[in-house]
Amino acid sequence: MPGLVDSHCHIPLLSDEMEVDSILSEAKNNDIIHMLCVAVDLEGSPEIIALAKEHDEVSASVGVHPNTKPENTLTIDEITHLANDSNVVAVGETGLDYFRSEGDLEWQRDQFRTHINAAKELKKPLIIHSREAKSDVIQILKEEKADEVGGVMHCFVDDLETAKAAIDLDFLISFSGIVTFKNAKPLQEVARQIPLKNMLIETDSPYLAPTPLRGKINQPAYVRYVAEFLAELKEESLEDVATNTTKNYEEKFNKINTL
Fold first, then answer.
1. Which domain range does residue 18 map to?
2. Residue 30 in contact with residue 221, Cβ under 8 Å?
3. C-beta of residue 43 within 8 angstroms of C-beta of residue 84
4. 0.70 exceeded by the pTM?
5. Which of 28, 76, 101, 216 could form a disulfide with 118 if both were Cys (CB 3.0 to 4.6 A apart)?
6. 246 lies in some domain
7. What's the pLDDT tens digit per position in 224-243?
8. Is the pLDDT confidence value at 255 over 80?
9. Residue 259 lies in a domain
């Protein structure tokens, strides 16, 4: 079977529970050939970049999670200064989250626009976080011409209309362990209808461990459960899911090495 890619994980957060070498070894044992380690703030980005420099099977992103409000207004230069590195393949995660953040969220929308413009300057794709903000996310992506770089809708939980709008803007739809949950029937129906050519898989580890490991600490090795579930859901072979999602990752992010 072709190797799998975990298109979104947070190895530094997971390394509080496991040694990095163990994380990568477990991934290898489960046919995971590449992992995109995603930043949630600028302070942690150098550690992620160093991890990617040390391990060919890891790539890095640079960005500030939408629920994180820096003390000072985030600038394009702050992002590009860190992200202008060959081991950094994306900008993010960025986006909007109206679930965890409250009040006047114009700062969040401004920060999102800053990330988009940094990505365009760098010519690198975006990693988008969207929670209870689907309309504004799509609107801002359109307004800022994010289709010039495209990217991925990470940990997708929205409806088919939103998925199609994102695909039209050259974004892939990435499914996490959430799609395996028993109460995720609407999301499973979305996954059934999205072609494999538009799809990625991820763990978002250490969060959202898939069924049958729900409640445990997630890790990149467990992206295999997401792939297996989608294969059954879509009545496709696991090999086809692996081939397509890995190809999609390679084409979008332009960097993949094998373990």
1. 8-253
2. yes
3. no
4. yes
5. 76
6. yes
7. 999 999 999 999 999 999 99
8. no
9. no
